[in-house]
Each structure stands twice: as structure tokens, then as C-alpha cells.
Amino acid sequence: MVVLTGNRDVFSAGFDLKDAEGRARASLGLGEQRAALRIGPRMCRAWWDMEQVTIAAIEGPCIGGGVALAASLDFRLCAASAHFRIPEVALGMNMSWGSLPRLLALMGPTRTKQAVILAADRISSADAHAWGLVETVVADGEALTAAMAFAERIAALPPLAVTMTKTSINRLAGALDDLAAHMDTDQFALASLSEDHKEGVAAFLERRKPRFRGR
Description:
By secondary structure, the chain is of the alpha/beta class. The chain has twelve helices and seven strands. The longest helix is centred in the C-terminal third of the chain and has 15 residues. The N and C termini lie far apart (46 Å).
């Protein structure tokens, strides 16, 4: 049993657009960029493939890659004041890390489009629960305690049967995922070269509305 959490205030604030190492990636060749961009998808895939049951305990913001990571786990519990946001599209990028098929499986096509395309919108804990993004909402400060209690219930069951059941469900649910997920790294690399991406990042850092031109 594995429980993943952040701290009492933040699960994940997402990628730091001011990070010098991340910004320097734009100067890399395409091959080097593709290699660097595979780190996130491989991390999420490792969580998805883990034999142990995995549970996310979410307090506060869960942004961008944090949502992709949480979607890679088996269960998600969040605090009442937690919120979710996927800002990639508003920054001129696509949602990557193989997360679209997983979000689609959790929320269905319409809610996934709403969550990803309307990137500026916060998804409250109540909406996240209603949409299927999280399974349980608890009082603030109680996400980790609730996740541990949930983990104890599963840990009391026969471990081999639990592992085989989880593996079978993941294989069935994700049987077609590679048809979409294999391309999102290349889409991300391509989108990062666009003028709209540069404008989206600049507008975010300058705290102004972006002016996108579709190029």
C-alpha cells in the first residue's frame, strides 16, 4: 500500500515557469527535448503500473502535472478546500504525461474537455467529486488521515487477490491508452515551439491577459 501526499497546504503547485532549468529546455535540440519530456510520462506510468494499491491524499492546490500524477494513482481523497486546475492549454501547450486517457476514464469526455480546455477554471473539491476526479472529500487537514484509514482497510484483505484485481482492471481500462498517449510528448515539444506558447508564458509571468494568434 502506498499513500502519496504533499503537505497540509499544497499537494502540487505544478511546474514552476520561472525555473531556469526548465526554461533552458527550449534551447535543446528536438531529440534532447523529447528525451527530457519523457521523464514525466515515465513517472506517471510507474505509478500506474505499481502492483501496490496507491492512494493520493490531496490538500490545497493540485495543479497541472499534479493532476496528471494524481490521475495515475488508484484512488484520490481530497480536503474540502482543495482545488484542481490544468493550465497547460492556457499556456499554449497540450496536457501530456499520458494523462488524457486516465482523466477520460475517470470523468468521461465532456468533463475532461471542460477540465482541460477551460484551463483557467478552478475545479472545486465538490465538482471534482461530482465529476469523478476524486472518490472522497474530507475535512481540511484530514486527507492524509483518511487516506491512511482507507489504506488500512485494503491492507487487511488478501494481498495477492488485491494485486491481481488491480492489475486486471488497469489493463482492461488502459488497453487503448497508448493510441493517444504515445503522441502527447511530441505534441508538447511541437506546441512549445509555437508563438502562442511563448505568449501564454509571457502573459502569465507579466500578469496580463494573453493575445493568442493561432501560430
